[in-house]
């Protein structure tokens, strides 16, 4: 009953995970969003994570597994969650399997979104995010009705610190080295689905809905 989005930075995991979570009424659990909230609040985890995230490297497995384990204890996670950006290392995937086994839970689907690197760079360099509610925009592909203002909540839009060209390249390299091995980890499980991230967000979402077999 848990859903996992796997794929390089910028393929559209956040965009699609938010939509799927809304459709099937499960919480959207983005470790990136949780870490950014910790950085903003200045918590101990935020202080440890800030410089790592700005450099494009991965935050330690120990911190990530801790925040995910804690998140799964909240009442709204009982029926399952839509993970976005987790797991990202083999160690995290093993830890998730253990956590789920302990709860008698299963992975409903692993959605691996694939997109060419040029397209990824294009998408990330034009991304804007709402500082208040986390809604995701793009200056060309998904602009808000009023420039700089969130359609959903009226909050201000920001460019993420790690969406600069040098950091984007570093994140892509980190993905290849540390996260790509997860494809082999999940590939032979029945819940694995490879989904093309090309085309409009609506088209990609249709592919996902079809893969997981839920009605829209
Ligand atoms: P995280 O926040 O997870 O970032 P990421 O994986 O780099 O993914 P992104 O958010 O960049 O991209 P996305 O695939 O969600 O794309 P989006 O939908 O926004 O992680 C950030 C950092 O936190 C990491 O570097 C690491 O330091 C740390 N961290 C997080 N989790 C961790 C973990 N588990 N372990 C260790 N460290 C961790 O779309 C991108 C853009 O494209 C947007 O502008 C969007 O509007 C646009 N777009 C989307 N779909 C389409 C489409 N179909 N057509 C045109 N444009 C589109
Ligand atoms: Zn907003």
From TrEMBL:
Keywords: Kinase, Transferase. It is an enzyme of class 2 (transferase). The keyword Kinase applies. Its EC number is 2.7.4.3. This is Adenylate kinase. It comes from Acidithiobacillus ferruginosus.
